[in-house]
Amino acid sequence: MAPNATEANLATDIPVSEHASKVRMIKWEEIRRHKSEDSPWLVINGKVYDVTEFQKRHPGGDMILLGAGRHSTELYLSHHPSYVLESKMLDKYYIGDVEGEEQIHDKSKGVHHDLFTGMKAAHLYDPKSQTDFYKVLRRRVEETLKKNGKKPRDDPEMYTKTVISLVVWFILYYSIHFYFENYFASLACAIVWGFANANIGMSVMHDGNHGGYSDSPVINRIMGGMFDFLGGSSFVWKMIHSVGHHVHTNVQELDPDIHTAEPHFRRIKPIQHQRWWYRYQHIYLPVLYCVLLPELFIRDFVAMFKGSWGGVPFQPAPTREWVIFWSTKAWFMIYLFVLPIWHCGSVMRVVSINLVALLIAGELLVLMFQVNHVTEAAISFNVNEKGIVEKDWAISQTEGSSNFAAGSWLWNHISGGLNHQTEHHLFPTISHVHYPMLHPVVMKTCKEFGVKYNNYPSFWDAIKGHFKLLKDMGAQGIKYDYHVE
């Protein structure tokens, strides 16, 4: 039997400032103006904190800015250990409460992707729906790491993996474009190079941009910058992935990873209208999936200039981010096309070989990501008429995620910890090399609290679970509920 739920706030261990006789009530219009490093305000559990001075000595560096000018309770919970959450260090920065007005969400108008800016509720997740699940689990995870003599980050295994991954990448790159004269030898290496690109993205970049690689913000930034080196944008990625997806996992109206316009090329949510082409989506999507990386390259430009993507408004990009964006995009084109073409003189050879590598990397990455949340096992959620999710946040992270081959050391390294998606969503700042050790702790705690823990026996089973969902969701005349809550 699950422990009783508390009627407290989102986490009973979040510090709450003592209210004066008259509390300052702050409107969202004012809060949203404080979303940059010039004067960042955080909204945690309905309370507003001005962390302008604290950001300069924040142990996580500029990660604190991810939550500026927006709901940041869930980011605060998932990015800090118990001793921080139980302290009163935030009290000195408290300036008032969010004004309790709420904007009604009209579901009759379909998918509404402006809830991030339009919603005026003090919470994203209903405080009355929160339980002690995450508090208990976090304590157990911290105790497990301590018992095994492990730090959450800066693990030698991760550093070793990084060196091997980068060395392999550079050897393959050099062999493909500067060593082999035979086209087919280069093509064979390009196939492996595609996996090498995906590996750096899933492992090194992923941990770095989540602040889960090192205790040093500088090292995290360097490792997260591997995404920029590979043609992406770490700034755009953090806005969409950390701020959007990780906070609103599988919330149909809010999760940018399952963002779908109307009409769309695929149907993965019950709230989408049915279209005739969806009946074939399980057949044509594997082909479309492979163009992920070229699509991301183009998307980054649109997102940076637009300042949002998938309904997620971005923080203002500082000048340094624009410099990184333009310089790394240019460098990507230089090392991928300009230098190889200058060396061999054949545009067709270079373009075709690079295309093979990019398509393979894209297909692998999409499959890894899709089996984490878009499966028949994962539950999706909706906001209510007030724009609030009536669910315990940590439980929604768990039930909205799908693992595969959980506990496997090999698959954990192959996937960069994505096979332990549940553990990752609950503890994104813990290095993925620890997930096999933490898996039994999470699974046991889920069982005690009656939380649905999704785990496919193998990667192949997870792929089948994804495509079964696509086939069922695309079936004409059939209403597929997709475990909606």
From TrEMBL:
Bilayer-crossing regions: 158-176, 182-200, 283-302, 322-343, 350-371
SUPFAM superfamilies: Cytochrome b5-like heme/steroid binding domain
Chain ranges of the Cytochrome b5 heme-binding domain: 23-99
Keywords for the protein's UniProt record, in alphabetical order: Membrane, Transmembrane, Transmembrane helix
InterPro entries per the UniProt record, alphabetical: Cyt_B5-like_heme/steroid-bd, Cyt_B5-like_heme/steroid_sf, FA_desaturase_dom, Fatty_acid_desaturase
Keyword Transmembrane helix: yes
GO molecular function, one term: oxidoreductase activity, acting on paired donors, with oxidation of a pair of donors resulting in the reduction of molecular oxygen to two molecules of water
GO biological process, one term: unsaturated fatty acid biosynthetic process
Keyword Membrane: yes
GO CC annotation: membrane
Name used for this protein in its record: Fatty acid desaturase FADB
Native source species: Acrasis kona
